[in-house]
Amino acid sequence: MAVTRTVRKPRELKLADFLKLERELARLETENKRLALDNRSLESDLAMSRYAIIELMDVQGLLDGHEGLEDHQDLVAWRRQALDRVLNAADPRPALQMGAYGHGERALCPLCRGSTNGPGNTRGFAFPEGLRRHLLGESTPHQCEVFAAADKSIIRRIRAKVVRMGGA
Ligand SMILES: [Zn+2]
Q1: What is the per-residue DSSP string for 3-35?
Q2: How far is the CA of 151 from the centre of ligand 1 (A)?
Q3: Ranges assigned E (strand) in 1-134
Q4: How far is the centre of ligand 1, averaged over its atoms, from the C-alpha of 148 (Å)?
Q5: What is the pLDDT of residue 76?
Q6: Which of 37, 143, 155, 162 falls 20 to 30 Å from 22 in CA-CA distance?
Q7: Distance 65 CA to ligand 1 centre (A)
C-alpha cells in the first residue's frame, strides 16, 4: 500500500499567501475605518433625531436639564426631577371618565399623549404609578418615546465618557 506523503509547498507559494493575507488585512483595515466613520455619522444622526423628538414633543420644557449630563448620579438626579415635573403636568381624571372601570384616576402622558394598550377605549395610564412606569420603562416593554429620547441621550454621553477615560 502506497504511503502518500504531504508535499511541502515551495517557499514562493508561502510568500504569495503571506502577501495575499497582507492585502486582505489592509482591505479590512480600510473597511473598518469606513465603518467607524459611518457609525460616527449614524450616532450623530441619532443624537439629532433625539433632540428633534424632545424639541417637538416637550413644549413645556418638562425634560429640561438633560443636555450635557455625562455622569450616572446626574442621570439619576435628572430622572427624579423630570419625573416629578411630568407627573405634576399630568391631568388626572376619574377612571370612569377615561373609559376604565374601578376607582382611582388615569392620565394621558403629557409628553407623548399616549395611553396604555388596555382593553377597549381605556385612555391614559393609571395615575400616578402606571404613568410613572410608562415614563421610566419599568415593567413594560414600551418606554415613553419622548422620555426615552432624553434618557438615552444622557446614557450615550455617559458611555462615551467611560470609553474616553478607558482609552486614556
Ligand atoms: Zn409618554
Answers
A1: PP-PPPPPHHHHHHHHHHHHHHHHHHHHHHHHH
A2: 13
A3: 93-94, 105-107, 125-127
A4: 9
A5: 96
A6: 37
A7: 18
